[in-house]
Write a structure and sequence with these properties.
The complex is a heterodimer of chains A (about 300) and B (about 325). Chain A has about 300 residues and is of the alpha/beta class. Chain A has ten helices and ten strands. Chain B has one domain: MetI-like (MetI-like fold), CATH 1.10.3720. The chains are: A alpha/beta (about 300), B mainly alpha (about 325).
């Protein structure tokens, strides 16, 4: 029996980008193209919150010096659902994510073209600290500050305002943020313990709580589970599904199963281009573009 | 059999246990030498301390005349003079070192922050080696500039003629003094502090800085709340090292401190800073011609012992200050 043919991608072939007409935001990923052969993989349970577009990328191009990392990407980001960005390493998904709250500006060589809108307003017109309070970010490696658990969560609240709130006033929002991040019951006895002594999964949930304390409207997550064990990962995925009811969540992930489990919408990027943007179930079960089919099918990664 | 012999050829000729022994012996010898030196200093210093008791550290009388009397004590060991009240020397050391470190620390911290956070890359590349070079300049060079250039300048522009005339009978005021000593000490120790603090600031994980920025905290607050906070143990270490260097500085201070044993009086207003001082280490240099007189030698050993003990206390204090700061650091 001959071995199965190996599908390869030739790099100089014209990109097979599908121009999907703007997807109507219907509140859940179901009801689109059904399973087109293969195993049907169910997506996350539909969200109960109304879906509302909060951010939009409009022909966004990002370059590091002469090297273009993200090329003319159009992408809507909606509250009430989770957007997952997938793609092989170096495809620009993390760069795009970091540009959403202008963290790319911390890199000296980075430059950006196109517009990013938050509630219809250009983010370049917003003050950067205001923007980052509204669009917060959780990183790949848990990065709690070398302070106590309490001080970590209170950090944004203390440094954000012009007046320093007292510890008593902070107790309530800190508890709320830790509860939302599902960490309150594990740390409520040890709020003054060093955050860096927590386990990796707890540290990452602490970082999520730290972001949530400032009550952001959009939460960006850059491979938040890649350094964590399966149980911590499951906890964080559960948390993501809860969070999408109130805020827009964008998650970059290398893990296709994770994208299937949590994402209502999936954006597949390749070599800086947005190849396909579709409801999760459609993208995984009936991808329109050849590259998406290859990537999702495991031909490369 | 042949396999065994070839394995033997590959084996190190001296087993590692042997090397361990050698290194251990070397380290032990060094430690013994230091311990022996300490014991010798304290043994030589003992007559001076036992004769004066705790009053050694107090004030009373003219310390300069006391040192002269010790030098001129009779040759008979039973009639050696040891009477000394060393407070002006201690006070001079505390003043010059304290002023230099207090003014130097904020200066060094701000310089390090500028170097690490704000300086354009080209300037950064130049500043780092320059600071390291400044930290290594022999202090006697600073002393020479101080005594030839700065002391006459201060004498001409800052010392008022009437003040000079008023105190001339008690204390000579000539430019060299507390102000000049502290300034040159500061110039000497600031590069050391900058080198240590800027290394620590550069070592602050970028993920913490980015994490703070991602929460909408601006660059200035991030710098103080994350970078400087993380660098606190290094700042403490820098202060300890700089203070130790200032304490032990002798030649330079002997050149620029006015060479007169005197305790500046804070009630003199700004003239306080122009009055001469005589720090401990500089006293040893100043009195070195008198080593042949046994009791003076022993007195100088007592001064050396005080310097040794203060260095030890300083190291310990630095360690103690760093402990609570380490509480939240990663293990």
């Amino acid at each position: 029996m001959p071995p199965p043919p190996i599908r390869k991608i030739s790099l100089d072939a014209p990109p097979t980008v599908v121009h999907v007409p703007p997807v109507p935001l219907d509140g859940n990923g179901n009801g689109h193209a059904g399973p087109a052969g293969g195993v049907h993989t169910p997506g996350p349970p539909p969200s109960e919150a109304p879906v509302l577009e909060r951010m939009r990328c409009d022909a966004v191009t990002i370059a590091y010096g002469p090297k273009v990392a993200v090329n003319r990407v159009d992408l809507p980001i909606a509250q009430g659902e989770v957007l997952a960005m997938i793609g092989p390493s170096g495809c620009g998904k993390t760069t795009l994510l970091r540009s959403l709250n202008r963290l790319t500006e911390l890199t000296a060589t980075a430059s950006r073209g196109g517009r990013i809108l938050l509630d219809g307003q250009d983010i370049d017109a917003l003050e950067v600290t205001t923007l980052r309070k509204r669009v917060s970010m959780v990183f790949q490696q848990p990065n709690p500050f070398p302070m106590s658990v309490f001080d970590n969560v209170a950090y944004g609240l203390r440094e954000g305002g012009s007046k320093r709130p007292r510890k008593k006033e902070l107790m309530e929002p800190v508890e709320r943020a830790l509860t939302r991040a599902g960490l309150w019951h594990e740390v409520k006895e040890n709020l003054d313990h060093p955050a860096l002594r927590l386990s990796g999964g707890q540290q990452q949930r602490l970082c999520i709580a730290r972001s949530l304390a400032a009550q952001p409207e959009v939460l960006l997550m850059d491979e938040p589970c890649s350094a964590l064990d399966p149980i911590s990962t499951a906890k964080i995925e559960e948390l993501i599904l809860e969070l999408r009811e109130q805020i827009a969540v964008v998650i970059v992930t290398h893990n296709l199963q994770q994208a299937q489990r949590v994402a209502d919408k999936v954006a597949f990027m390749y070599l800086g281009e947005l190849v396909e943007y579709a409801p999760g179930e459609q993208l995984f079960n009936a991808p329109q573009a050849q590259r998406t089919r290859d990537y999702v099918g495991g031909a490369f990664g | 059999m042949s396999a065994l012999s070839s394995r033997r050829r590959g084996a190190p000729r001296r087993p590692p246990e042997r090397a361990e022994l050698w290194l251990g012996a070397l380290a032990a010898t060094l430690l013994l030498l230091i311990a022996g030196m300490l014991a010798f200093v304290f043994k030589e210093a003992w007559p001076s301390f036992s004769h004066n008791g705790l009053a050694w550290f107090g004030s009373g009388g003219n310390t300069g005349q006391q040192l002269a009397a010790i030098y001129e004590s009779p040759a008979n060991p039973d009639e050696y003079v040891y009477h000394l009240r060393a407070w002006p020397l201690l006070y001079g050391t505390l003043l010059s070192t304290g002023l230099a470190v207090l003014i130097g620390l904020p200066f060094a911290l701000l310089c390090s922050l500028f170097m690490v956070e704000f300086a354009p890359p080209g300037l950064k590349r130049i500043m780092t080696p320059v600071v390291r070079f400044l930290a290594a300049v022999p202090s006697v060079v600073y002393g020479l500039i101080g005594i030839l250039v700065l002391a006459p300048w201060i004498d001409r522009h800052l010392v008022s003629a009437s003040f000079k005339l008023d105190v001339n009978a008690i204390v000579p005021v000539s430019g060299g003094g507390l102000l000049l000593a502290s300034i040159i000490l500061m110039v000497m120790i600031v590069p050391i502090m900058i080198a240590i603090i800027s290394d620590a600031l550069r070592a602050v994980p970028r993920s913490w800085v980015e994490g703070s920025a991602a929460l909408g905290v601006n660059r200035w607050r991030t710098m103080w709340k994350v970078s400087v906070r993380t660098a606190r143990p290094a700042i403490a270490a820098a202060v300890v090292l700089a203070t130790a260097r200032a304490l032990g500085e002798a030649i330079m201070l002997a050149m620029v401190s006015g060479s007169f044993i005197w305790a500046p009086n804070p009630l003199d207003g700004l003239n306080f800073f122009l009055e001469p001082i005589m720090p401990l280490a500089a006293t040893i240099v100043g009195q070195q011609e008198g080593f042949s007189a046994v009791p003076l030698g022993q007195t100088l050993y007592a001064i050396a012992a005080v310097l040794l003990v203060s260095s030890a206390i300083l190291s310990f204090a630095g360690w103690a200050v760093r402990q609570p700061l380490r509480k939240y650091a990663a293990r």
